[in-house]
Amino acid sequence: MKNTLITLALAITLPLVANGATKAETKNPAFVAWVNTADDGFLLDVKGIGKVKLEAIKNGRPYADREALLAIKGIGKVTLQAMRAYFATIK
């Protein structure tokens, strides 16, 4: 069963990656990260996060929950809602 699930996950994600999609663009649960531990590359792949917000996110760690990102300049409710697909609950 486990091998079947892995094979299925690869069958779904490999075409996306092969077509040049970034991890964040796939919105695949296999590519969800914790905001407190996500690396720079992942964060930069998230639409709406550039170098300035990346540094602000890193400097504000650790976060108690995703809503704590609202304290970062340039991240409002709409931006946070769009980011939810990329970030798991806080770990």
How would you characterize this protein structure?
This protein has 91 residues and is mainly alpha-helical. The protein has one domain: DNA polymerase, domain 1. It has five helices and no strands. The radius of gyration is 14 Å and the shape is globular. The chain starts with a helix and ends in an 8-residue tail after the last helix.
Query: What is the CATH architecture term?
Result: Orthogonal Bundle
Q: Helical content, roughly?
A: 40-55%
Main pleated-sheet profile: none
> What's the oligomerization state?
single chain
User: What is the averaged pLDDT score?
Assistant: 74
Question: How is the topology of this model organized?
Answer:
Elements: H1 2-18, H2 23-26, H3 40-45, H4 51-59, H5 77-83
Provide tags for this entry.
47% helix, DNA polymerase, domain 1, globular, 91 residues, mainly alpha, single chain
